[in-house]
Amino acid sequence: MSRPEPIPLPPHAHVPGRNARHDDAVFARFHDSVRPGMGAMELARTLAWRAGWVYLNRGFYWEAHEVLEPVWMALPDGSAERQFTQALIQLANAALKHRMGRENAVRRLCGIVEDHLAACGTSERIMGLEVSAVRDRLAILRGGGGLEILAD
Questions:
Q1: Average of pLDDT values for 137-146?
Q2: 3-state secondary structure the chain
Q3: Over the chain, what is the mean pLDDT?
Q4: What is the pTM of this model?
Q5: Which of 2, 22, 90, 148 has its CA 20 to 30 A from that of 118?
Q6: Which residues are CB-contacts of 26 (< 8 A; sequence separation ≥ 6)?
Q7: How far apart (Å, rounded) are the C-alpha atoms in residues 24 and 34?
Q8: Phi, psi of 91 (to 5 degrees)
Q9: Cα distances (Å, whole numbers) of residue 84 to 40, 55, 120, 143
Q10: Is the distance from CB of 117 to CB of 109 less than 8 angstroms?
Q11: Measured between alpha carbons, how far is 132 from 126 in angstroms, rounded to an integer?
C-alpha cells in the first residue's frame, strides 16, 4: 500500500484585512482531488480532506475552510459526514475569528459547531477522525485559546 501524498503547507496563513489572499491556483490540487460521486470514505482519503485537518491544526484556518468546502459540497445533504465536515469548516472559521480578535463571532460560531456535531448522532469516528478531537478543539476555542499548537 502506498503512503498518502504529503500535505504541502501554504506560503502563509491568510487573515482577511491583514495579508494577501492566496491565488486560487494554490488550492487547485486539493479541489481536483474531490470528484462527483465519491463516497464518504473515498472523500476521507482525498488530499482536500486530509489537508483540512492538517491546516486546522497548524493555524491555516482560512485555508482549511477553502480545502474542506468541496468535500462538504460532495457529501449528501443531511448525512453525518456532511454535518461533521460543516463542523470542521465552522471550527476553522471560529479559530480565524479568534485570531482576528472577534470574540463575539467566536462564541456564535462555536455554537454553530456544537449544533453540527450534535446532528452527527452518536458516532465516535467520522471519515477517519475522532469526533472527540473536534470537541476538544471546540473546548479550547471556547476557553479563549487558539489551535496553532495542536498536533495532527
A1: 87
A2: CCCCCCCCCCCCCCCCCCCCCCCHHHHHHHHHCCCCCCCHHHHCCCHHHHHHHHHHHHCCHHHHHHHHHHHHHHCCCCCHHHHHHHHHHHHHHHHHHHHCCCHHHHHHHHHHHHHHHHCCCCCCEECCEEHHHHHHHHHHHHCCCCCCCCCC
A3: 92
A4: 0.93
A5: 148
A6: 10, 11
A7: 16
A8: -65, -40
A9: 11, 16, 6, 21
A10: no
A11: 10
Instruction: Kindly tell me if the per-residue pLDDT of 43 is higher than 90.
Output: yes
pLDDT at 152 over 50: no
CA 1 centroid distance within chain: 26
The cell numbers describing 64, all together, are 482549511
Q: Which of 58, 113, 122, 111 is nearest to 85 (CA)?
A: 113
Alpha-carbon gap, residue 151 to 54, rounded angstroms: 8
Q: Would you state the cell numbers that stand for residue 95, as one nine-digit string? A: 479559530
Confidence of residue 5 (pLDDT cuts 50, 70, 90): confident
Model confidence over 61-116: pLDDT tens digits? 999 999 999 999 999 999 999 999 999 999 999 999 999 999 999 999 999 999 99
